[in-house]
Design goal:
By secondary structure, the protein is α+β, with helices and mostly antiparallel strands. It is built from nine helices and 14 strands. The protein binds adenosine-5'-triphosphate (ATP).
């Protein structure tokens, strides 16, 4: 895709690139370059053209569109097969369909708006248009089905890492929420298709409140966005590319042992529940205790009042802070 390549080159150079140089690099005519530049300008890119110097990218619009994303991705596998949709029902549903049709590991479905975004246990994920990030990554790990739920934690680590690079103090509420100032800014929903001992595929859906300013009343007290916390607009495609880079590294580490032993220190450091009283809402019976951290399998270790340590598996369980959301 020449447009994305030209955009990437302009962005990376940060300086003027001559029309001649661009033609040479991509083996296209001056007219072809001019046409691409013109269409980029029409999409909202600010590109300065100076005689004898060439073109310089001054500013990019906040688009979640293929050229913009591809020009920012620095990964070797994650997001290389990109499905970009202006609007959809749920990116997890789209990714599952792509998986059934043979899409490769690392396939990324991104949209600007979800009509039926979902959270765990069939709950809704508020997904308005034009301000946030909604994406699903398709993986085909060769681990056992029971190990796949750890991938939620790997994505949480990647998303929190990318948000922290924006200068925000993101933490993780086990297993799958990214939290800022005690409020939820990101949710993750992992789904899998597997036989007893074989995974066909895993999809990890992530919704991040990026530039949303107002929330519906039901979640107003528990939800926030990056813009609200930072006080400035965040470029969605850049954030997505950063999450992909973080995830690719963390996933490689996870795949080396099929557990979280190497990622554990980084996760524990961001784990907001640590040493806090929690109520574990287990379908088999709720109980209270103090969260002490996670183990190599990503289970939350909860100390019961009698001092025994219980390992809680993420699957169907919710954890609530006793003195607040975390
Ligand atoms: P729990 O805290 O019970 O473990 P969860 O982390 O599993 O929940 P999810 O299923 O990931 O929660 O997310 C769904 C819930 O998140 C909804 O029930 C709603 O309360 C809340 N929610 C929905 N949309 C948003 C949003 N855009 N931002 C923040 N919170 C949201």
């Amino acid at each position: 895709m020449k447009k994305a390549e030209i955009l990437k080159l302009l962005r990376e150079s940060g300086d003027y690139l001559s029309g001649q140089e661009l033609c040479g690099r991509f083996g296209v005519s001056r007219t072809a370059v001019w046409k691409i530049i013109t269409s980029l300008k029409e999409e909202g890119y600010e590109i300065e053209a100076v005689q004898n110097k060439g073109y310089r990218l001054k500013a990019s619009p906040d688009l979640l569109e293929e050229g913009e994303i591809v020009s920012r991705l620095g990964t070797s596998r994650m997001g290389k097969n990109l499905i970009c949709l202006p609007s959809t029902g749920s990116t997890n549903v789209d990714a599952k369909k792509a998986a059934e049709e043979g899409a490769p590991e690392g396939t990324l479905v991104v949209t600007d708006c979800q009509k039926t975004g979902r959270g765990r246990r069939g709950r809704a994920w508020e997904s308005p248009a034009g301000c946030n990030l909604y994406f699903t990554l398709l993986l085909r790990p060769s681990c056992r089905p029971g190990q796949a739920s750890m991938l939620t934690l790997v994505m949480a680590l990647a998303a929190a890492g990318a948000v922290r690079e924006l200068g925000l103090d993101a933490g993780i509420k086990w297993p799958n929420d990214i939290v800022l100032s005690g409020k939820k800014v990101c949710g993750i929903l992992t789904e899998m298709s597997a036989e007893t001992d074989y995974i066909h595929y895993v999809v990890i859906g992530t919704g991040i409140n990026v530039n949303q300013e107002k929330f519906p009343e039901e979640i107003e007290k528990t939800a926030t966005s990056l813009k609200r916390e930072k006080g400035e607009q965040i470029a969605r495609a850049a954030l997505l590319a950063s999450i992909m880079a973080h995830f690719e590294r963390a996933y490689e580490t996870f795949c080396a042992s099929w557990d979280l032993r190497t990622l554990l220190p980084a996760y524990q450091e961001l784990l907001l529940n640590k040493d806090r009283p929690v109520r574990v809402l287990d379908p088999g019976g709720a109980f209270e205790g103090v969260a002490r951290g996670i183990n190599d399998s990503g289970e939350l270790l909860v100390e019961r009042p009698d001092g025994t340590l219980e390992a809680v598996y993420a699957g169907e369980v919710s954890v609530r802070g006793i003195y607040g959301y975390v």
